Amino acid sequence: MTAASIITLRETFEASLIVGIVLAYLQFTQNQKYSIVVWLGVLAGVVMSFVLAVFFRVAFGGFEGRAEALYEGFAMLIGAGLITWMILWMLKQRRNIKSAVENRVALHLENDHPLGLFFLVFLSTAREGIETVIFLQAALVHSGGAWQMFGGLLGIAIAIGLSFLLFKGVVRLSLRHFFSVTSVLLILFAAGLTAHGLHELQEASVIPILIEHVWDINPVVTVEGVYPFLHEKGAVGGLLKGLFGYNGNPSLLEVLSYLSYLLGITFVWRAVSRVKEA
Question: Does residue 22 form part of some domain?
Answer without folding.
Answer: yes
